[in-house]
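dumping these here so i dont lose them again. two proteins, back to back, each one seq then structure tokens. dont judge the mess
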Amino acid sequence: MTQPPPARSGLPALSAADASELRETLLEVCSSPAWAAAVAASRPWRDRGDLLTANAKAMAELSADDLRDAMAGHARIGTPKPGDAVSEREQAGVRGADPSVLDELRSANAAYEAKFGHVFLICATGRTADGMLAALRERYPNDAATEAETVRGELRKINEIRIDQLLDAPQ
């Protein structure tokens, strides 16, 4: 009896995925269809660095509408999406936070959203609720153009973490 071929994992599996499967996988990393298309078009990737470079290049080229698409895939800071393991893992720093800090975070989020028209986006991995609140307050005075570029950088960092997790996940 012959054994099935070993399953490919990480970068080889991602590189070999058919277009539809790759698109769905990339949209789990970043909800911008334009980003997913740009990253997919950059295949083949020789190594992790190539894929991370494709992420940075694609992120740098997103339009304002594409950035909104990318932000739409993210939960409001301080309120991870219930049942969404990625959202809960990325915002683990809010678990157990003082309720007054969470109340302040909700208020600051509301003011930010009223000013900028979108959720406050930050790479929350490894940050505490206090740290995210401080960052929100620090960024609130930004003008729209400055904040859009800050968001672009935060999305790039989030995507890098998600790509690393995707490549390192057991298949």
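---- next one ----
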Amino acid sequence: MKSDIRVCSAWRDQHDRPRYSLSETCPDCGAPTENSAPAPFDPEDPYGEYRRALKRRNR
């Protein structure tokens, strides 16, 4: 699922708190925005393959 809410990539330097927007650029400072949602999984997860296989098997 893709998040539409984005956060200013330079908010730590430019603003006192995170600035959220739906556009590709920050409306206050013009910096590019980035996806505010965390990754759905950790790509470095050593047991992810086994967890997904177990989930498929238990359906």
